[in-house]
Amino acid sequence: MYQLNSVTQTYERRGQIVTALDNSDLTIPDNDFIAIVGPSGSGKTTLLSVLGGMLAPSTGDVMLDGESLYDLSVEERTALRGRKIGFVFQSFNLISWLTARENVQIPLMLSDKTAKQQEDRAMEMLDRVGLSDRTDHRPSEMSQGQQQRVALARTLANDPQIILADEPTGNLDSETRQQVMSYLNEFHKDGRTIVMVTHDAETAAFAHRTIRLVAGVTNEIAMARAA
Amino acid sequence: MKLRHMIWKELWQRPTPMLTSLLAVTLGVTALVAIQNITVFSERKIAGDMESLGANVLVLPPSVTLQDYYGADMHGHTMPEEYVTRLALARLPGVENLAPKLCVEADVDTIPVTLTGILPKSEFQAKASWQGLGMLGNAVGSDRGCCATAADTGEADNDPNSLATTRTIAELGDRDVILGRDLASQLGAKIGDTLPLLGEDFIVLTVLPSTGTIDDGRMFAHLHSVQDLSGAGPVVNVIEIMACCEDAAGGLITNLSAELPETRIVTIAQVVQTQIAVNGLMSRLSWVFLSILLLVGGASIASVMYANVTERRKEIGTLMAIGASRNFVTQMFLGKAAVLGLAGGAAGFVVGTIVAAVLGPQLLGIHVRPMPMLLGVGMGTATIVAVLASLLPARRAAGLDPCLVFNDA
Fold it and tell me: Going by CATH, does the domain composed of A30-54+71-223 fall within 2.60.120.1440?
């Protein structure tokens, strides 16, 4: 479970203080599915970075499963990310010179799995997203939808408890968007917590809760049944 | 999949900058290997040449002027044979062999000849005090320059013909005589013949091969026999010293002069010094070339690595977001640098050896062979330079903010 207590994040840009998160409080229980919406520059990405343990807030606490995330060292947070958190990116962020299988193997390699374990798990995940016939293809040899599915397989590789998704459907057509959101919904049903940043109302509708972020302030605007 | 697998695949993903860096490193190591190779084999050739020259230091009576290197004993002045003992006991570093000589005029069947008394090594060995010092039983000297090969090769000295090349002989009987090629022809003598000399009969032990020197017209007998039969007493005209080039060109002459102040020490120091200087210059030059080229190679690698980090920012951020530690990212770049260094070092060794093999005979008339030691030196140096050049780029990569992976970061 995530617990954000009075989290403020400020930047200095050209001598001016910019407030990305303003004294925000947010609780995200286990197996929640949250959509974070808001205009550009409202602090959505900052919130995702803070939740991912990659950006220490200026003030406030971020608790994950009762542990203060930013009391951990950088290396400990990196290890925790590899173990508990998976990411989905708008532009997929696949390594262009590795095959689909090798891309999925990366988080497994980073968690010191053996070559056999890596290969078996990667094949299993690619099979789950319907790409068992594309394991040796490079990203450039696949469609956008297929690339995002490889990215989803990579996200699932280490069986993370939390998935942080940054505009996961931003680069996809409507049909592929549906497909990707179905997978995310499926991962949610597996028991995972999903925090998704999006500016698309249709995509946000898949979430249980929608948090609107305006000028760094969080407001819960909707709670609905997941699609 | 392992880290090395990722490094290898990434290297081939961007072959052009990789090959540029590789070329720079290869050139540096090529220069080192080629010059060092030529230098080492040049030194060996000089060593061989000096060895064939024989003695390179002469100890003469003080009033004697050196007119001819090989005829330095034909002046009629003498000095006590005891000087040889003093030299041997002094154990001067760099002295490999001593060859005292006494020249007298004699007749063989009315034909005038120059008889040179020489002291075989067996005489040295018989003197317990010298033997105890290990003198003359083992070559003294370093493993470079003229001393790259030992002057005192015991087995070869058992052959009387070694006198022609090493100026020393292991065994020589009281009534044995060795003839130079020209003199043997003039006397019509051959091995086993008996020749009347200073009132005694001597047996021809061997006829020396032609040396192109004054020795071709001489005959050699045991020093003590010559001293006794000629009535000269325990004296010699010259003590030839086979010394290491470096020592002959350096402190040995001073030491010899200090040991035997009543003599004149003559050396072919200028020749030796020139050869040593050329060798040293070439050796130093190779390191200068290596340094310059590796500096260029290092700068090239650093530049390529910086560009690589910039180009791969998102990729690095992604890796860090999904669990790659800073250490892993650092290793990814340093590992790549190490591969470039090892490959550049190995390629430089191969190319450098080929260059040396081609240029050696053309420029210096020497034949070179691969020197495995340079493979290690080349690969080690290139790897160290490549890794050092990549330290800052790798550190920069490891310090990247993983937040840059997000959409509007």
Answer: no
